[in-house]
Amino acid sequence: MNFSGSPIEIQQEVADIQQNSRLTGDPFVDAGITAIELVTGKLWCEITEPEFKKAANDLVTLYLTPAWSKDLISIFPNSTYIQTARNYNKKEKSCEFLFDLIEGLGISQKHSNNCIFCGAKAFNRKDNSAFVKTQIPLVGSSSFTNFFPSFQNGISICARCALAFQFAPLVSYRAGGKPCVISCNNPEILKELGREALHYINEQRVLGVYQSKEISGIYDEKFRSPQNALFHLAYKITRSYRNKGIAGENEEITIYHVDNYNQNPKGVSIYNLPNSVFRFVALVMSSPEYRESWFRLLARHYTKFKKESDDLPFWKASLNLIHNQLLNNQSILWAFRDDETRTLTIPFVVIERYMGLVRGMNKQRIEKIKNLADRIAECIEKSGDKKRVMALQSAKDLVSFRNQLRLILRDWQKQGQSGPLTSFDDYIEVVIPGDYTGWTEVRDLIVIRLYEKLHHMLARESASDEQDETKEGDDT
Ligand SMILES: [Zn+2]
Predict the structure, then answer these.
(1) Could you tell me the distance, in angstroms and rounded to a whole number, from the CA of residue 110 to the centre of ligand 1?
(2) Euclidean distance between CA atoms 354 and 334, whole angstroms
(3) pTM recorded for the entire structure
(4) Residue 313 is assigned to a structural domain of this protein
(5) Domain that holds residue 117
(6) Mean pLDDT of successive 10-residue segments in the chain (476 residues)?
């Protein structure tokens, strides 16, 4: 290994490697390692055996509370933590299992297989029993070898990864009625989210509410939809975590919504917020003006508020169309214009960035479409023919859209304007590219720009339309 730089920089580099090499890339294992490090206040490599055992003991005490037992059914079904058999000593059996793993840490194993999570030698339990879905969520159960790689009985896992799995629920998040494991390419963000989860757990413990099954053991901000929960985390990270210097530009977050229940488990549903959307979220959270417009825009697109969710605010209880379309890689450009008031729902500069960051439109093309829209605005302002804007906005297919552009081109020529409205090359390559894909986005972008540029004219028309309607109402 080569290090360059001052001794302090080298020390920092070594610390970074130590810090990151303990993670495996598996969301459960990494969550568990983060949890253990947070409860012990130490890096994994510095934790002593008694400290591990104390953490395990505290964990079992927590897991045996009614609130946690209910959550653990869909994470570790049939496990020692939730056995209901009479005279079964859950505390003793659970500690025995965890202490066996702790005593196996760092001891070279004679197992012929390697851990499927980190590649270290797999661990043999004291009683030689296999690791199955009871201890490791989302793998098979022992009697069905066809659910395991190579038809083995159970999976191969090392003591460290198996122990980490047991702690992962501590830093998980509840959404959509199930535990969710959060994954992020920035370990500092996971740590900060973990701190919040532990703070929640301590608070509930102090209040003594874990004796009730009505409450969730796992950190719960009461989001009914994992999609809204994911965006809520992104808003939180890009606002407060950024201010603390934890979050940067290149993050992406994933939520693994887990159902490991014994009967008909749904398995895992994955909700990923890619870096392109994360960067866009960071942009809209970066100024009070953008933020206000964004939340106002979101508020218009929640699905109908259900009666039974009265105790929850609509942004926790209902699905949001904008969030869903962003996660499904569908365009939300349509939502940036309000056809009733003929205004923009968010500043144009945010829309430009959205097209670049999320839709992958290159800067040059955005600029050319914007310039074309500016010339169209100039033409309409001169002719006073505001109906052209409405005709463009309501063009339902490519043929009518092209036809509207042709009519504007004719107006432009009639006005004897200097220079062409658009060059032939730009028209072919930029406005209506060869495969015609995305023409609706070109239309929307032009209309949005026209709403912005011609706002004074269109707003007046909107007002006079209303007056006409009132008059009509008066006549009848
Ligand atoms: Zn491992």
Answers:
(1) 15
(2) 12
(3) 0.86
(4) no
(5) 18-171+186-221
(6) 58 55 86 96 94 97 94 88 89 95 86 87 87 79 53 81 96 92 93 96 93 90 93 93 84 90 75 96 95 95 70 86 96 93 94 96 92 94 90 92 92 87 82 77 94 85 50 37
